[in-house]
Amino acid sequence: MANFKTHVAIAAIASTGVAAFIAGLGTVTYGQAAVLAGLGLLGGILPDIDSDNSNAIDIVFNLVSTFFTGIAFLMTYEAYHPLVALIACVVTFIVVRFPVQWIFAKFTVHRGAFHSILAAFMMGLLFTVVADIMFETGEVIAWFAGLFVTLGYLVHLLLDEIYSVDFSNVRIKKSFGTAVKPLSMEYPVGSVVFAALAGGLYYLTPDIGPFIQLALDPTSVRAL
Q1: Backbone φ, ψ for residue 171 (5° rounding)
Q2: pTM tops 0.90, yes or no
Q3: Where do the structural domains in the chain lie, given as residue ranges?
Q4: CB within 8 A of 116, min separation 6: which ones?
Q5: CA neighbor of 42 nearest in space, from 105, 136, 130, 132
Q6: Which of 62, 186, 175 is nearest to 114 (CA)?
Q7: How far is Cα 149 from Cα 128, in angstroms, rounded to an integer?
Q8: CA distance 132 to 145
Q9: pLDDT grade, residue 170 (50/70/90)?
Q10: Which residues contact 205 (CB under 8 A, 6 or more apart)?
Q11: Exposed/middle/buried for 220, CB within 10 Å: 0-12, 13-18, 19+?
């Protein structure tokens, strides 16, 4: 499979290219495009959240912990005393970075349920809901956030599948077919959980109508 640096580089190129394109159309601002590109990059490394490589999972969980720490800050800094907000941020980072990471390492298998198209769309829906409810971005930007996470996620899966083919020796490695799959039949419990989460998250997503209208006619709606 592709190494971590390759995943980061290709996800960054793909997400930045798409973000620059929609910014050029005037659909989003360049500031919004930069955030979307960052979400695409995050999506490009999320499948390695179940990696057997300690360095990869450490990097992923550092980013994920920082993300949730930011959410904790946004939820507490206005409503509570600054010291309470600081404690909430520190506790959030520590909990996600260590106990949650340990649980993932203990109970997940690399290229299991997380390496599936179902997981990619579930993660996209999760970030759509987070963007809409936590950050109040509005419908269009919320859907763009989820789309970019899914884009980066799928780029990761495709890279792993491409690297399963040894072009120099013209052979297919044993790992071929384990990266891009609709869902994991080998780990059905994980797939059922992801399907249930996707269904619940979709119920919480904002109206998709403005996003579809924008996709059909980029000049009709602005996400600003």
Answers
A1: -145, 160
A2: no
A3: 1-51+110-224, 53-109
A4: 157, 181, 182, 183, 184, 191, 194
A5: 130
A6: 186
A7: 9
A8: 9
A9: very low
A10: 125, 128, 129, 132, 142, 143, 146
A11: exposed
